[in-house]
Amino acid sequence: MCKNLVTQLIYRVVLCVVSAFACLLSLGIFYIGQNGGNVFSWDFLKFYTNISNYFVFVVSVIVLADTVKQVRAGKTEGYNRKLRTFKFMTVIMILVTFLVVIFLLESPLQAGYWQNVGNMSYHFLAPLLFILDYVLFDEKRTLSVFAPLYSLIIPLVYVAYIFLLGAVIPGFEYPYFFLNVNELGYGGVFLWILGLLGVFAVLGYLLWLWNRFDKIDGKWKFDFHGIMFPNRSRGKKAAAQGAGAERQGEETDDKDID
To answer: Which run of H or of E encompasses 221?
Structure first.
């Protein structure tokens, strides 16, 4: 894990720039007037890929601001302390976007995939940079065992949102084949959703295990201490260390008096 705040700062500036570009592309701003493109159609709001990239941008900006604040305070090492659980949920969200696009919706083996600026930005670069930010820079042993389950909330809300649009908008075009109740029926869509939620959960717990894999006493191992309430456990540990340091200081003062 890289604790150097300047390195984190530079990386996160790049991440925010790439993510902002990806979001602008998803809005269609660069295509206004081309092939009938219209930035105000709101059609972009039905795509999970776009929504997950908007989450990435917002979280990235907040994390960058926290990093800037620490650097300006004179710190040289440290970690982001903002939106830890929510950032983890967003990592799972964009990771699924990354994998679903590659394995279900697009073919990266085709030359056209890499020639499309949109694919390169919001399907590949922005997701990959955000995932690596979590892997490289996030503090270990900070996530609750429930965090992977929390990551299921956003996709479930998204599915409900798409079903609502499909129910109220005549002739609504479903954004993905596995959500198309007109073609698959609610039973078929439910099976797809169940499978994708399973993927979310598995990926979530794999990344959670990464968060729990740390170097302790010179050895790399999984630490499952305080997995229910990690922040509370870390607070107690810090308090105990502070009390120990205070007692040691008192003992030193007594010796000086003697």
So the answer is: strand 219-222
